[in-house]
Amino acid sequence: MLARFRPAVLASAAALRATANIRQLRTTAAARSDAIFIHRDTPENNPSIPFEFDAKNRDEAQRIMAKYPPQYKKAAMIPLLHLAQKQNGWTSISVMNYIAKFLEVPPMRVYEVATFYTMFNRSPVGKYFLQVCTTTPCQLCGSSKIVEAIEKHLGIKVGETTSDKLFTLVEVECAGACINAPVISVNDDYFEDLTPETTVKLLDDLKAGNPVKRGPVSGRNNCEPSGGQTTLTTPPPGPGFMVRDDL
User: Fold this and answer.
1) What is the pTM of this model?
2) Could you give the CA distance from residue 172 to residue 190 in angstroms, rounded to a whole number?
3) What phi, psi does 7 have (nearest 5°)?
4) How far apart are CA 195 and CA 13, in angstroms?
């Protein structure tokens, strides 16, 4: 009786051994981006809205173009997009189409660049674009409290714009000023060594149109040690220092 089932048992055992030798693969869920890479016409963002450089930026664009050989002028795409965004406030479809025409390239080439780099804002942002660094060094120095202070003071959440169109708040990865953490970038200017209190004061000054000083708000000079200099405290020696007199 057992002999009748022996072949089937042996086959099942062989199948199990073969399965055990197969490498098991694990996959994680696909990460979803908060950026939308498909354009949809809206009343504030459609090709019928005109855009072109003003006289000042047209001259600046020509200076940028002069840095590149004529056959490689498309290499100026990123600085020209940045210049256009500074004029328009954000990178609309009209901005992208204009840059494509300016460089004499297919519009798709500009779309590819503008959708790849997160620094190009393809949706309208406020007059003051607040980018709070929340990478590890800033996080350890209290960037989460900075975000909370901004959200509470302005009444918005990350990714939102105030109703008066003055402020847009986003989180960014590594502003490159770790030694001055926590850091906020307001448009093109960095404000460093922040606390919740100094952050609120900065927002109030920006809203009131008061002059603000970029850089560390703690009073230290650039990224010098907060306790004062510990090296290079005396004038450097002049030429010939510690060189033999006969040389």
Assistant:
1) 0.73
2) 13
3) -60, -40
4) 66
